[in-house]
């Protein structure tokens, strides 16, 4: 208890110092706890939503498939199957559902409704009220649409976009754009529940005609008669429908839905936790540096403890108790702030247009455990080495003048730092040279980059003196006395300078690494598009993504009728259609891949696939164009037969007609349009390309296309440059999100600089008193400390940027060439980072400089 009281008094004596240290850990705990609370609450609310969606359905009949998205591109169920199912004993009611994505409502001004981060769907109003989950909005005038001329729209979309009941509006559907009378708003489940779908609804017959060309149902839901057995009814249905149609229970529906929700939530959680880990790494550095500096400043105090009889273990426990107190405070405060962070994350998701269901604040046992492990664990681990140093100090050494807890050894710093950074470099080179998949690359690259950062951090004290003298030369020349003092102060204690700069160095290294990877990826995409896209015009929706991935919220599609209109324009020489579907085909290695459809024998003048083996001149039905790297992986050559599995357990054999290298547009596998239609994967197009007719001006061609596509306002006409810019915007958006979080990490690094600068000022209290006594003015004190802080910050910035560029360049070179062909370094951006580091140094110096100017000269001179 005596040691605990002593630790508490030590902390009370330097409250600001430990408050800054605790703040860094608090932020890391709060971020982690906030992510866990928000995603746990979101998971619970979405799971509850799944139960409500399927609570009316005892069973569902659908096409059997485990390839691709079950909600898109699967074979339709025949309409007569609904009547057949209704006749089975034990079935009380059935209802067929028809639905399709990329059905776009057009407002009264002729503008397509913006889906935000959600999706747009055409939905058939269920013909059985007992099995319906959509209802007319209770406003007294809304009603269910009846007949081919009436529509309804969900009340959130309708009210926010000015749709007035009784007016007529156009809707872009897979069959074309048609106008309907709006007869009411609808709601899903209950009027307050909002989902990430914008829904337009017609009666079921009209819906099937509009979205499936008069075809069948996507799903058939059913309700059991009282007392009926699900297993018996499912067996009876299975005996009638055959092997390509399956029956699943309500619980299976709920579990599948929960799994889909969980995958999306886990993606968000892992992304946010990755940034929390970065913050924790920086916080760990700040905490470690603080304890190292504090122990150095208290060496005489520790020596007196030893003289008074304290053993080595007791001295180490003093440090441990102080770290434990910091950790406990950080855990408690971080846990409380984590709730606010969770609310902030939820607010950000709502502001982005996600429209997720309301969720409760759920603080699970694992969240509390995580807070304790991070808050107490980080501080205790970072205090171990300072505590071990402190226990090794003998009383005689501690009481000597200018005693140091661990004198700086330049040779040791270089050796240990070189070994650690060398190990990181080896891991990066393993990622570069080994034949690993993209997912397998992440471990050696990530661990290698981290070890490289740690090694460089160990080496920096050996570089600090020479770098400080070099970086301080301009200040010495421009600001004479202030600059000279700042330069010498930064250079005379290399360890302190390196310690102060370390947090900023780590933050800027991570930012620079991401910048190099992002720029390299974007430059590769631009180069690929410049080489492959030959068409004058590219017509698409949204950001023109050709894949549903982390860079794209949805895969845009529109009616083939729009392309047919364009094909009739005399201003165009030729028009080609491209259709894409993510993870919609399974190859012989069991992997699901993207599939593309085009007219194999004619699309090359529009998008050059880079054929390296074979020819497309005679390609067509039954042929597949395969990316060369994939062919090598599957040991396939031109002329070989390959079997591909499509949604609905459809297996089809294709002849490999040619091998290609282009992946930015056409992707790994391209089949002919006739095969796509035979497999009924989709009746919409995702991208249309066009070549201007000879003698026609480009502006004239654009005007003609835009004029004929006025019924499709969601469709954009882009030239090659605009298309490349649109595709690159997907990467830019992702980089903006990443950099927002990394800026937060840099702000924490600024706290670290301020903390160590404050400790430095405390350490030099007597020196500051002496220079003030011999005539240094307060403004000179301000200037000296500001300049010193800038020198230290730029030193950390330079080392961090250089480390990030090296690690990022090696990582970029390690990725497959179709993702990153060669590293690209954003020099202008890196210069901006260095300017930001100088500004960060100025910001961090404000409070330490103010404290230095408030020192009483006589008390400062007498300070020991």
Produce a short descriptive summary.
The protein is α+β, with helices and mostly antiparallel strands and 864 residues long. The longest helix has 48 residues, at 250-297.
Mean pLDDT: 82
Proportion in helices: 55-70%
Global geometry: elongated
* Main sheet record: 10 strands, mixed
Number of strands: 24
Rounded radius of gyration (Å) = 33 Å
Q: Please identify the structural class as seen in this structure.
A: alpha+beta
Task: Tally the helices.
Answer: 24
Low-confidence stretches: 548-554
Strand content: 15-25%
Give the CA-CA distance, first to last residue.
Answer: 28 Å
Commentary on this structure:
This protein is an alpha+beta fold and 864 residues long. Helices cover 57% and strands 16% of the residues. The strands form four sheets. Strands 13, 15, 16, 17, 18, 19, 20, 21, 23 and 24 form a ten-stranded mixed sheet that branches. Strands 3, 4, 5, 6, 7, 8, 9 and 10 form an eight-stranded mixed sheet that branches. It has a four-stranded antiparallel sheet with strand order 2-11-1-12. The longest helix has 48 residues, at 250-297. The two termini are 28 Å apart. Mean pLDDT is 82; it is low at 548-554.
Can you tag this structure with a few keywords?
elongated; single chain; 57% helix; 8-stranded mixed β-sheet; 864 residues; 10-stranded mixed β-sheet; alpha+beta
Helix and strand arrangement:
Blueprint: H1 2-13, H2 15-54, E1 59-63, H3 79-86, E2 91-97, E3 99-101, E4 104-105, E5 119-125, E6 134-136, E7 150-154, H4 155-160, E8 168-173, E9 176-188, E10 197-203, H5 204-212, E11 219-224, H6 230-241, E12 245-249, H7 250-297, H8 299-307, H9 312-351, H10 365-392, H11 395-399, H12 410-433, H13 438-471, H14 473-492, H15 494-532, E13 537-541, E14 558-559, H16 560-567, E15 572-586, E16 592-598, E17 611-614, E18 623-627, H17 628-634, E19 641-646, E20 650-660, E21 669-672, H18 673-679, E22 684-685, E23 687-692, H19 698-708, E24 715-719, H20 720-763, H21 765-773, H22 778-814, H23 827-853, H24 857-862
Parallel strand pairs: 5-10, 7-9, 16-21, 18-20
Antiparallel strand pairs: 1-11, 1-12, 2-11, 3-5, 4-8, 6-9, 7-10, 8-9, 13-23, 13-24, 14-22, 15-16, 15-23, 17-20, 18-21, 19-20
Helix pairs in contact: 1-9, 2-7, 2-9, 2-10, 2-20, 7-10, 7-15, 7-20, 9-10, 12-13, 12-22, 13-14, 13-15, 13-22, 14-22, 15-20, 15-22, 15-23, 20-23, 22-23
